[in-house]
Amino acid sequence: MQEIELKKWVSDKLMLLLGYSKPEIVLYVLGLSEQALSPAELAQQLEDVGLSASSETCSFAEEIFKKVPRDKASSGLNLYQIQEREAMILARKQRTHTILEANIDADDSVGDAGNRKCFRKRKIEEQEGDEKGKQVKRQIEERLGDQRESNNVKTLRRISRQEYLKKREQKKLEEMGYDIQDEEYLFEGVKLSEAENQEMRYKKQVYELAKKRSRESDNDMGEYRMPEAYDGEGGVNQKRRFAIAKQNYRDASAGDEKKPFAEQSAWVEQQIKRATLNLKKHKNPTSDEYEFVFEDDVNHFINATTMDCDEFKVESPIEPTLVDEREALPIYTFRDQLLKAVCDHQVLVITGETGSGKTTQIPQYLHEAGYTKRGKIGCTQPRRVAAMSVAARVAQEMGVKLGHEVGYSIRFENCTSEKTVLKYMTDGMLLRELLGEPDLASYSVLMVDEAHERTISTDILFGLVKDIVRFRPDLKLLISSATLDAKKFSDFFDSAPIFEIPGRQYPVEISYTKAPEANYLDAAIVTVLQIHVTQPDGDILVFLTGQEEIETAEEMLNQRMKGLASKIAQLVIFQIYGNLPTEHQAKIFEPAPKGARKVVLATNIAETSLTIDGIKYVIDPGFCKMKTCNPRTEMESLLVTPISKASAMQRAGRAGRTGPGKCFRLYTAYDYHNDMEDNTAPEIQRTNLANVVLTLKTLGISNLMNFELMDPPPVEALLKALELLYALSALNKSGELTKIGRKMAEFPLDPKLSRMIVASDRYKCSGEIITIAAMLSVGYDIFYCPKNKKLLADSAKMNFHRGHVGDHIALLNVYTSWKETNFSTQWCYDNFVQVRSMKRARDIRDQLEGLLERVEIELTPNTSDIEAIKKAITSGFFTHSSRLLKNGSYQTVKHPQTVYIHPTSGLSHEHPKWVIYNELVLTTKEYMRQVTEIKSEWLLEIAPHYYQLKDVEDSGSKLLGHKEGH
Quick one: 597 and 525 in the same domain? Predict the structure, then answer.
C-alpha cells in the first residue's frame, strides 16, 4: 500500500473512532504501529493514548499492523537483546586482529650480513614453530569439536525433555480442567453423595494448586508472558477477567537488569504525569457561593407528593458486588414464591415497579430452576437498545460471554449461538421467528416484557401466543407489565393470576410548577442548571421528545455552561434515542468523572426500557412524540402530544433507583390529575395496518375480524389495509395470499417497498431498487445542515439532484458515490451526509440482498436505465400519485386532497406535472416527502386494475389549462 493511501486510510479510521483527525496524529499512529511487536500491544498503546477500549479499536490495530511495513531483521528483539548482539559482534572483530610485535619494527635496523643471517634463521624457526603450533591447534580443535558435538547432543536431549515435560504438564492440566467441566455438566442438577462432593472439591483444589504452581513457574523464568484470565474456586470472576484483559505489561523494578523495560516504563509514566491536566477538586457548591443569574427563571416548584416505598435501604459505603446487587433487588425476596407460581400456572402476569429486577432476574431464576433443559427462555423487549443492554448485564451477572449462554437478537444483528439458553430480542424479531417456527418449539418459557408499552408487534404477539399456549401446555408464558395495566392483561389471558412485586427501593419526591410553562425546553435547561448548582451529588435525567430537541438542548446547555465554567463544577452531557449508534448508546451507562455531574437527555426510551444507575433527579416536561395515521388519506403525522399518567409515573420512578430521588414535573398538578389520560393509546389503533395484515396472512390467519386482539383496531383501518394489499397484488379477490404476497412477506419492510423490490425483477434493476429501499428505510436524516454552513450543505445536497432526477434517484446517487469512495467517512463529512445513517443503510441493503435469492430474484445492476428504475418505484407507490394544479399545489389522484412538495425535496422548485411520493406528513401543511416525477401513462401500464383512463387522460390541459376556458 502506498504511503499516501495508507495515511488517508488511517485518517478515515481516526475520524470514525475519534471524530477528528490531524496529520500529526496520523504520523504518530503510524510510528506506534511500526514499533509495535504485535496487534495486541498496538491496541493497548492506542487505548493508552485516548482511544476507547472496544472491538473497533482492536480491529483497527490488527488492520494497521498488517498494512504498515516494518524491518523484519529487527522484529522480535528488545533493546537489551540488541545491545547484547552488538557486544558479541564487537568481541568477534577484536579476536580477528592481533597487536604488532616490536621485533618486526627492528628489521630496518639490521645493518650487517651476520645480523641478517641470524634474523633469517630466526624467522625460519618461527615459521616452523608456527606450522607445528597450527597443527597442534587443529588437532585440539578436532578433539574439542567431537566433544562439543557430544555435549550439544546431550544439551538438545535435555532441552527437548524439558520442553516435552512442559507441554505434557500443560496438556495434563487442560485434561484435568476438562474432566472437572464434564462432571459439572453431566451431574448438574443431580444430588450427589457427600463422598462424591468431597471428591469433586478435592479435584478442584488440586487443579487450582497445579495452575498456581504453573503460574509461579512461568514468573520465575524472568520473561514476558501474555496475561491470562484465571478464575477462582468460586466460579467465573468476570470483573477479574476484565481487569486482566485491560492491564498493560508489567515491568520489574528499575534495579533489575533482567527486565530492560523498567527504565523506559518509569520515563513514560513521568511524561504522562507532566502532560496530564490536573483539575482542582470541586467542592459541593451552594447557592450562596456564586453570582448566578438566569435570564428566564422557572416558576417555583410545589412539593406535592412523595412516592412511598415499602422498604427503605441505606446505601452501604462498601462497593457492592454483583451478587450483593442482585440480592438487594426487591424481586429477590420473592424468588421462591415466583418460581412456585410459574410452576403452578401456565400463564402468569407479573407486575412490579421499575427497577425491581423483573427483566434481568426472572430469566436467571428460571434458568437456575432448570427450565432451560427443555428449551430456551425468550424475553422480548419493545426496543433494540433495551434488548442489547439487558443481555449484556445478564451475561455479566452470570459470568459468561455475551453471545454464548446469554445472547440477543435485533434487526441487522444476531448475537446468539447454539449454546444460547437466555435470549433477549425485540418483539418484531420474535414475530419473524414465528414465520419459520409457528409453535415456538425451541422455547420452554416466553416472557413478554414491558407489555404496558403496547407496541403493534406486542399486541400481535398477545393474540398469537394466546393460541399457542392452548395447544402447547408445556410452554410457560409470562407477561411483565406496569401495575396500572395488570388487570387488563389478566382478563385477556383468561383471568390469568397476577403476581405482584411490591415496594420501591427508595422514595421519590415529586414537585409540580405553580403555572404552565410557555417554553418547556428552555424551562428544562434552566432546571438542569439550578439542580446542578443547588442540589447534592446525583445525575440528572431529562425527558425530551426527539433527536432534534435533544441536540438543541445540548447546544443550549453548552452555551450557558461556557459563561459559568470557572464558577461551577463540570457538567457531562449524554444523549440517548432510538437511532443513536450502539457505541454511543453504551456511553450513558458510564459513570461521570470525579467531581463532575452527568446529565442524560433522553426520549421516552428511558422510561422503562433502560435503567441508568446514579440518576437521582428527573425532569419531566410532560410531552412525547406520537405517530398517528389517517386511514382514509394514509397521511401520517408525528405530533408532540401530552403523555399519560402511566408514563408520568414511569418517568418519576427512574429517580429512585440508587437512592432517594426527586422528580421535577414542568406542568401543574391540576393538569396531571384532570387533563392527562390514564394510559397511552395502543399503537395498533393509530397506525397503518398493511404490514400487520400481511404478517397475519403469512402466518395463516385468514379471518382477521375474529383474531383476538386486546384492543381491536378501527374497522376502517383494517379495510384500508386489505384494499392496499389487494391493489399491490399481495392478496387475491378472496383475500388469500398470492405468490407476490408471499415474496413480499419475506422482506421486513413496508408492503409498498416490498412490492417495489418484487417488481424490480421485471425491470432488471433489482440492485438499484434495494439500495433505494434501504435508504428510504433509514428515514430522513441522511443529510445534515450545520447552521454556519447552510449554503455549502445545500449546494452539496443539490449535487445529487443534478438533472432533476427526483428524490429517489438522488438517494441512489448518494449511496453509489459513497460506495465508489470505498465507504469513506471523510467523504460523508465533505458532503454533509450522516455517517451513521449511511452505515445503517448499508446494513439494510446487505440484508435485502441476501433475501433476493430466497425469493428467486436475480441481483441485476442497471444504473443507466433511469426510466426502468422509476417504473419499478411506481409499481410500489402507484397509490401515492398526485398531479399539478394551476395554483402550483398538487392534488392526489384517487382520494382528491390538496398537498405540497416538501421544501427539502429536490423538486420543490421544479413543479413536474405528475409525481409519486413516499408518504404524506402533516406539519404546517400536508406535504409529500421523497418525490419523483413520472409519466401519467405509467399508471395505466402498471396498475390498470387501480386506475382508469378517465383518471389520467388529458389531465394536464384540464387542470393546468383550466384558466383559459373562463
Answer: yes
pLDDT value of residue 944: 92
| pLDDT tens digits for range 724-744 | 999 999 999 988 999 999 999
**8-state DSSP, 672:** I
In 325-438, the DSSP E strands lie at 347-352, 376-381, 406-410, 413-415, 422-426
Q: What is the pLDDT of residue 115?
A: 60
| 64 and 85 co-located in one domain | no
Q: Dihedral sign, CA of 708, 714, 719, 725?
A: negative
**What is the average per-residue pLDDT within 114-127?**
64
Residue 127 identity (one-letter amino acid): Q
What are 863-896's pLDDT values in tens digits?
778 999 999 999 999 999 999 999 989 999 988 8
Is the sign of the CA dihedral 417, 423, 429, 434 positive or negative? positive
pLDDT recorded at residue 957: 41
For residue 829, list its beta bridge partners: none
Task: Find how far residue 720's CA is from the centre of its chain.
Answer: 37
Q: Note down the domain range covering 44.
A: 3-74
Q: At 581, give phi and psi (nearest 5°).
A: -60, 155
> Cell match 441536540: residue?
551
| Residues counted in the chain | 966
In whole angstroms, give the CA distance from residue 407 to residue 393: 11
DSSP-derived secondary structure for 933-946:
E--HHHHHHH-TTT
Model confidence over 252-296: pLDDT tens digits? 444 444 444 455 555 556 555 555 444 443 444 433 333 344 444
* Residue 300 falls inside a structural domain: no
Q: Which cell numbers in the block locate residue 237?
A: 470472576
Domain end: 644, 659, 685, which one?
685
Q: Would you say residue 837 lies in a domain?
A: yes
Q: Apex CA 682: angle with CA 678 and CA 687, to 5°? A: 140
DSSP letter, residue 578: T
pLDDT digits (tens, 9 = 90+) for 435-489: 889 999 999 999 999 888 888 899 999 999 999 999 899 999 999 986 667 888 9
| pTM check: above 0.70 | no
- E strand spans, 102-204: none
Q: Is 564 in the same domain as 669?
A: yes
Here the cell at position 409 is 437478537
> In degrees, to the nearest 5, what angle opens at C-alpha 873 toward C-alphas 868 and 879?
130
**Over residues 310-314, mean pLDDT:** 43
Q: Which class for 74: exposed (0-12), middle (13-18), buried (19 or more C-beta within 10 A)?
A: exposed
**Mean confidence (pLDDT) of the chain:** 80
Could you say which of 666, 685, 704 is where a domain stops? 685
CB distance 757 to 724 below 8 Å = no
Q: What span, in angstroms and rounded, lies between the C-alpha atoms of 702 and 700?
A: 6
φ, ψ for residue 628, nearest 5 deg: -130, 155
The cell for 854 is 430466497
Domain count, the chain: 7
106, part of any domain: no
As given in the structure block, the three cell numbers for residue 391 are 443481555
pLDDT for 123: 64
Summary count for the chain: helices (H), strands (E): 35, 22
To the nearest 10°, the Cα dihedral for 193, 195, 199, 201?
70
Please report the sign of the dihedral spanned by the C-alpha atoms of residue 277, residue 283, residue 285, residue 289. negative
The pLDDT, as a whole number, for residue 948 is 87
